[in-house]
Amino acid sequence: MNPGLSLHQYLDAHAGTDPIRRAVIEVVAALAQASTEISDLIRSGALAGITGQAQGRNADGDVQKDLDVRADRIIRAALEPLPVAAIASEEAMESEILYPAAPISIAVDPLDGSSNIDTNMSVGTIFSVLPTPRDIRATFTQPGASQLAAGFFVYGPQTSLVLTLGRGVDIFTLDRGANLFKLIRSAVQIPADTAEFAINASNQRHWEPPVQAFIEDCMAGASGERGKDFNMRWIGSLVAEAYRILTRGGIFLYPADAREGYGEGRLRLVYEANPMAFIMEQAGGEASTGRQRILDLAPGALHQRVPLIMGSRDKVRRLERLHMSPDIKSEKNAPLFAHRGLFRN
Ligand code: AFP
């Protein structure tokens, strides 16, 4: 597909005359417009009164920043006139029914990575487009494999959109002069193998044995059983980590850990893990809890958390094998393992 193609031209070509596809592209176009407004706020930061300061907590107890609330409002206003049956947001306890007869519904994390706003780091908006089922109450309990489209905006040095409509992954960057998103990469493929992992290593003592073993092997580098050195990244912003993986491969882990409230990890299934998993698979990667494919999970609750391991296919599969390996489970209590520790003192 020719570079420089505008998002509108790209979306029109996808939709044709199919009414559901047309509804999907109208939503993507509206989210793109909303993202330029959010991007402008972020670029202005304190000059636009954006402090990154906590304003309280959202419905599920997470710290809510001023821009979380403003981004949510901007997105809802952009979607309001469109054929959307229901919307679910990280910033609201319950989903909201808009036009029940509409063919699609949206789940959104209006501003992911907001704890990074006051440090001038990349943050983003993540969205998932689902078909509206016969029983609208079941909209957000559909497995991620039902998604019609998914994507995320990264508000970084460039404002970019990573998008899948179910036929591969394409990336667009905002041309501010023309106020248009333009295609910069099409048919993105994640390298199958990689030498880069992303995990918050400060939680190492809380991880389950399979994750401990995987990271330990990476840290052992060329002298260990992997026979090669690895690099580590941790940005604290899911969209930035995903964008890097789509650019040069790698694996991202936010696993379950033993801390209170982290028994199912930190990330939300419906509006973070599912859209990311759809994108990863469409780009030739994989996304798993370590035991199950993310897209096969049927959400039990709107803000349900899930362990997320995603990125280069071979690495995700290695972690799944480790989770299935009975030896690893028993090794956790073995004296040797107890003293191995990730960072030898
Ligand atoms: P915030 O939206 O609260 O900043 O959380 C961002 C996030 O959900 C995800 O984008 C990061 O990968 C992850 O949390 C970082 O979590 P830690 O702060 O525990 O490392």
From TrEMBL:
One of its GO terms (cellular component) is cytosol. Its cofactor is Mg(2+). Pathway: Carbohydrate biosynthesis; Calvin cycle. One of its GO terms (biological process) is fructose 6-phosphate metabolic process. SUPFAM superfamilies: Carbohydrate phosphatase. Substrate binds at D112, G113, S114, S115, N200. Residues 190-323 form the Fructose-1-6-bisphosphatase class 1 C-terminal domain. Binds 2 magnesium ions per subunit. It is found in: Cytoplasm. Its main location: cytoplasm. The keyword NADP does not apply. It comes from the Bacteria. Its EC number is 3.1.3.11. Mg(2+) 1 binds at E90, D109, L111. It holds the Pfam family FBPase. It catalyses: beta-D-fructose 1,6-bisphosphate + H2O = beta-D-fructose 6-phosphate + phosphate. Mg(2+) 2 binds at D109, D112, E272. Residues 24-183 form the Fructose-1-6-bisphosphatase class I N-terminal domain. Belongs to the FBPase class 1 family. Homotetramer. HAMAP family: FBPase_class1. This is Fructose-1,6-bisphosphatase class 1. It comes from Bradyrhizobium sediminis.
